[in-house]
Amino acid sequence: MGSKIIQNRIVNDDELVLRLQRGDEWAFQLLVRRYRKKIYAIAFGITLDAEESRDILQEVLLQVYRSIHRFRGDASLSTWLHRITVNRCLNWKRRWARRFKWMHTPLGEDGEDIGDVPASDLPSPETRVADLQTRQQVDKAMRQLPEAARTVFVLREVEGLSYEEIANVTGIKLGTVRSRLFHARKRLKEILQPLVEDDA
Amino acid sequence: MNTHQVSPCDDLLLSRYQDGQLDAEEKARVEGHLAECAACRKEIELLAFFSQEVRRRIDMATDEVDFPAIEKAVIVKALRQRRSSIGSAWFSALKVLVPAVAVASVLLFIGYRQFKEPPATAPSAIINSFTGPISSVMIFETPNTHQTILWYNEATDEEREQNAV
Ligand SMILES: [Zn+2]
């Protein structure tokens, strides 16, 4: 996109915002590359659905493109992006659709199985089985967390945000972040511990 | 868990310890407790293991994404938006019409379904939805019974979820 080549120079987020606001097309591509994986990881952690996460990633990036001129820098670019992503994931239509889908598609029936792995870089059969088990167990456990608890847990464990950053992104109080994380872990422990002990 | 002068087990403190959110004094207290309490050591280990499994799960999912393809699609859409945004002022007038059209098409659709063969089963799909000032409606198709379902949703749903738990 565009002919402008960025020299081997790190463009920090502040500059990136300025360039985006100025309408430099390469800046948008840079933004996409810098944040696509993070946005996707958060979306997947919350939705546990590849297709939905791809849609959310696209929507978030396009929303940023449309509304970057309104970005005033009250929060950092990354907090803003996280906030948009979480809002998209927790949008009521998506929540309802998810609840509905999970009610009707038990795990392992959503077409996501070990057959998805490209044949060229197949890990050993043992690893594949272990991976599939991890997937299903983790998905099952995560599905059982309330959306709000799952969101906070993902921001903490996947994105490594501090309690304060999580509070900024989600708009909840620090004490609520703390208690949601605690309850998420407690619940995950209740669900996953028996499985771990079965393996032993 | 412990019988002598060691501080009592405290799961909430352990959770914050794991997140590196304790001050020096609290941290010393937890570490003192961990030195004495095998149950809490095991707890910490388990919590760390679960977190690692969740991260691994999400890494697996991320590894399967064709990011360059998404990037391309997004950039194309962004540029198209930019070009079309200029002549779209009159488009905002349509905003008034959209809810009316949505209602009409939903009604038409429901009527239409009376005569239509049930389609091949895709997993539950949203067929249509629209948001109004008082309530919102979403229409689903169930995979087994092909029922059409209307969900009514109050505008405050978002906040309610935020305040829950
Ligand atoms: Zn203890």
Structural class of chain B: alpha+beta
* Helix content bin of chain A: over 70%
Helix and strand run of chain A: HHHHHHHHH
By CATH's scheme, which homologous superfamily of the largest domain in chain A applies?
RNA polymerase sigma factor, region 2, helix turn helix motif
Overall number of domains of chain B: 3
The major beta sheet of chain A can be summarized as: none
What global shape of chain B is seen?
elongated
Strand order of the largest sheet of chain B: 1-2-3
How can the largest sheet of chain B be summarized? 3 strands, antiparallel
Q: What proportion strand of chain A?
A: under 5%
Question: How would you explain this protein's 3D organization?
Answer:
The complex is a heterodimer of chains A (200) and B (165). The longest helix of chain A has 26 residues, at 174-199. Chain A is 71% helix and 0% strand. The termini of chain A are far apart. Chain A has 200 residues and is an all-alpha fold. The relative contact order of chain A is 0.09. The radius of gyration of chain A is 19 Å and the shape is globular. Chain A has two domains: 9-101, Orthogonal Bundle (Rna Polymerase Sigma Factor, Chain: A); 124-200, Orthogonal Bundle (Arc Repressor Mutant, subunit A), CATH 1.10.10.10. Chain B has 165 residues and is an alpha+beta fold. Chain B folds into three domains: 11-63, no CATH class; 66-116; 125-164, no CATH class. Helix content of chain B is 56%, strand content 13%. Chain B has six helices and three strands. The longest helix of chain B has 26 residues, at 38-63. Chain B starts with 10 loop residues before the first helix and ends with a helix. The model of chain B is unreliable at 115-124, 133-141 and 145-165 (pLDDT under 50). At the A-B interface, helix 2, helix 3, helix 5, helix 6 and helix 7 of A face helix 1, helix 3, helix 4, strand 2 and helix 6 of B. Zinc ion is lined by residues 1, 9, 33, 37, 39-40 of chain B.
